[in-house]
């Protein structure tokens, strides 16, 4: 097995994870600030995304949120 620490792979992975986290937070902030929903609804949406978005792409998160909002307005969860 190859020693991955030799090339700094864990450090690169950590940097990538931190960068993706910052991008996610910035996009959440944009949505929050540009939405005309009430602050309680926005806070719940962001909590839902945080609770359910681990290891998901932005497209998967948008789809998941869209489905949740549709279910909510249909009288679901």
Ordered list of secondary-structure elements with their pairings:
Blueprint: H1 9-34, H2 39-52, H3 58-73
Q: Flag low-confidence runs.
A: none
Strand fraction: under 5%
- The number of strands is 0
Number of domains in the coordinates? 1
Give a description of the structure.
The radius of gyration is 17 Å and the shape is elongated. The termini are far apart. The chain has helices at residues 9-34, 39-52, 58-73. The protein has 77 residues and is mainly alpha-helical. It is 73% helix and 0% strand. The chain has one domain (8-73).
Protein traits:
single chain; 77 residues; mainly alpha
Brief write-up:
73% of the residues lie in helices and 0% in strands.
